[in-house]
Amino acid sequence: xxxxxxxxxxxxxxxxxxxxxxxxxxxxxxxxxxxxxxxxxxxxxxxxxxxxxxxxxxxxxxxxxxxxxxxxxxxxxxxxxxxxxxxxxxxxxxxxxxxxxxxxxxxxxxxxxxxxxxxxxxxxxxxxxxxxxxxxxxxxxxxxxxxxxxxxxxxxxxxxxxxxxxxxxxxxxxxxxxxxxxxxxxxxxxxxxxxxxxxxxxxxxxxxxxxxxxxxxxxxxxxxxxxxxxxxxxxxxxxxxxxxxxxxxxxxxxxxxxxxxxxxxxxxxxxxxxxxxxxxxxxxxxxxxxxxxxxxxxxxxxxx
Amino acid sequence: xxxxxxxxxxxxxxxxxxxxxxxxxxxxxxxxxxxxxxxxxxxxxxxxxxxxxxxxxxxxxxxxxxxxxxxxxxxxxxxxxxxxxxxxxxxxxxxxxxxxxxxxxxxxxxxxxxxxxxxxxxxxxxxxxxxxxxxxxxxxxxxxxxxxxxxxxxxxxxxxxxxxxxxxxxxxxxxxxxxxxxxxxxxxxxxxxxxxxxxxxxxxxxxxxxxxxxxxxxxxxxxxxxxxxxxxxxxxxxxxxxxxxxxx
Lengths: 304, 248
Prior knowledge:
The complex is a heterodimer.
Chain A (H helix, E strand, L loop, with lengths): L6 E3 L2 E3 L3 E3 L8 H4 L9 E7 L12 E4 L2 E4 L7 H13 L5 E6 L4 H12 L6 E5 L16 H14 L3 E5 L7 H10 L4 E4 L3 E3 L2 E2 L4 E2 L6 E4 L4 H12 L6 E4 L5 H10 L3 E4 L2 H4 L3 H15 L15
Parallel strand pairs in A: 3-4, 3-16, 4-7, 7-8, 8-9, 9-10, 10-15, 15-16
Antiparallel strand pairs in A: 1-2, 5-6, 6-14, 11-14, 12-13
Chain B lengths: L3 E11 L4 E7 L11 E5 L10 E4 L2 E3 L2 E7 L3 H7 L6 E8 L10 E6 L3 H10 L4 E7 L8 H7 L2 E6 L6 E2 L2 H8 L7 E4 L2 H10 L7 E4 L15 E4 L2 E4 L6 E3 L6
Parallel strand pairs in B: 8-9, 8-12, 9-10, 10-11, 12-13
Antiparallel strand pairs in B: 1-2, 1-7, 2-6, 3-4, 3-7, 5-6, 13-16, 14-15
């Protein structure tokens, strides 16, 4: 018998627990040349702001052992262009569209959240409070509990759709940050964002990243992400979406056992464009082999 | 079109200490255009993690060739792969050199020859080829180039073959007066020099650029370069750009 893969994140029902992580899947169409993206549980689109953003000066990426550092700087086409040029295409697919968003200040966060909330074809919102490649105070709200509290409260009051807050790993106690989000009405937590990192060319003594530092992603960070997902999921009642270096079904299963209700595949999309659907197949195979009828029976099943 | 395939290595041989030619068998017919690139994943492990982009060097039936220099971990691992091994290739990606209508000029520096060889193959006997390298042993496929081009001007920095000096200088002396479209690929210093030389010319000059890449399909926004119209992705808006649009 086919195992049940459906999970619920807030009011959002995902046909399977595999999403593609923001910033790694473009606006969806880039990958539709390789496979039917309707097979995905959902697509988290590239972080959106009110106005288009140019992003950071190159070089923007560098590969490190089992990972990569990026400093894209949230380059995006802006809310209006997204709705006009990208969303109509995405609407054709039978999958959930989650809009990742951010602002230069709290007012912008609220405004773009409100606009996305009112836009047909967007099923949930993911609030980015944790980009390591931006410097303004509000962009760092994910590092400061009181800023985070105020921001989640205000955004929550403006939106009805499922609100996910994406946390930074760059904090002393990530479970505490998650609890703040839960208290202020977030429907779910996603974690982790990339880890601030640096790589230097020893001959030129220059950083290999244009902005000097960037965010580390990929399998190199996976054990850190698993640990944080475990810490957060035992501290809050709302669902957790696990992100960090997942490249195959086994990796995803690790996150489910640690407590994640869904996972998002990021850097793996760059390694193999088919990663996300292969991961779905591998999860299904694992459940069959282990005679688990429902993915929900696996979630948070760590034996301590 | 199927853009992901597994290919068997036919040959992966050294031309010099650090320059190799890789030939693979593609499982079906493909129709890449000169200037486009493929991404080669060198192994199934996590280090190196990402595939590496290489422009198409040559294609004969189902034998696809890449000419590459060992620059880092990815190309180093690639150089150690042997005949019979299977690698994952995705592509072709990116834009291509606009097809020349008649005679044209090619200016290639070093391993940049890898990007323009296939152009000459598709449009033979029409190119004035200016090809520069550090040393004569780094002039690759001279015989083939001689057959494909209309005229060949080779320059080496040490003067061990034809002309002594940098390729842009030989072009200035022998080719600048020709009012023909230019196709170019080579090191940044060469492109900068070329841009200076062409400042007052209005013949088009197409340059194949290079940048570190992750996805290769326009999703990650990692490979941007600066142009007059802002950042552009080398993998999708490029790799070929008009030289006047590039901010070097």
